[in-house]
Amino acid sequence: MSLRSPASDQRQRHTARQRHPARRTGLRRPLALAATAVFALATGANAATAPAPDPAGGHLAATNELTEPTGSGGSGGSGEAAGSPEATGSAGSALPQLKRLIQRQADAWNRGDGTAFANTYAEDAEFITFDGTHLRGRPEMARNFQIYFDNYTKGTRLVFTKVPVTLRYPMPTTAVMITNGCVANPGEPECRPDSHSVQTYVAAHRERGWELVSFQNTRVQNLLPPPRT
To answer: Other C-beta atoms within 10 Å of 147: how many?
Structure first.
């Protein structure tokens, strides 16, 4: 059995830290990066600007006209899938009605009208925000969006940069549309580089025509390298 003085123990701990600095710093770096990523996803914003949270996932940019679809595999350059209702003649193209619904969403957002925003969706629609909040049905959507509009997103604008990116029809009466955009903060003429998101809409053709039945929003993070060309 050996006896060590407190000074000796302290010298040994200091020597061990000098020998293995990676043990101390190697774990901190991924933890710090993870904490930063969680904060960014939770706030939906750049920490430097710290805008209020927005339920649509934070994101679409200011344009007065919605753009035509591109690159979705359609024939004749229309951007719609070859097996779409426009080609089969069953339910008719969803694009004109979906673009009108998207424009109504932007108008309702800019007015701060939660009921009008929710009314662009089907009665039984489901809405998943960028932070994972799951809203079910028009009444719940209207109630929660009004809270956001009244307390967190006053003066912001819902801005679409591309509608749609793609539009496909898994079935003649079902359409899946991908869009890009952001929420512009007061005084911002357009989307900030860090505010872009990708939205997925699912629409069903029913008695009243095409209705939005599902929405999901994801903030663009670019964590993966660009695809090889």
So the answer is: 13
Percentage of the chain exceeding pLDDT 70 = 60
- pLDDT for res 226: 76
By C-alpha distance, which of 132, 98, 104, 133 is closest to 117? 104
- In angstroms, the first-to-last Cα distance of the chain is 67
Rounded CA gap, 206 and 173, in Å?
Answer: 8
d(CA 41, CA 158): 19
Cα–Cα distance, 178 to 199 (Å, whole number):
6
The string of pLDDT tens digits covering residues 207-216 is 989 999 999 9
Closest CA to 140 of 53, 199, 201, 55: 55
CA-to-CA separations, 42 to 35, 52, 130, in angstroms, rounded: 10, 11, 9
What integer pLDDT is reported at residue 49 of this predicted model? 32
**More confident call, 101 vs 61:** 101
**Tokens standing for 89?**
């003649």
Tokens of residue 34, six digits: 């993870």
Q: What is the pTM of this model?
A: 0.62
CA distance 101 to 106: 9
Give the angle subtended at the CA of 124 by the CAs of 119 and 126, to the nearest 5°. 85
Measured CA to CA, the distance from residue 202 to residue 216 in angstroms comes to 9
**Averaged pLDDT, 173-191:** 93
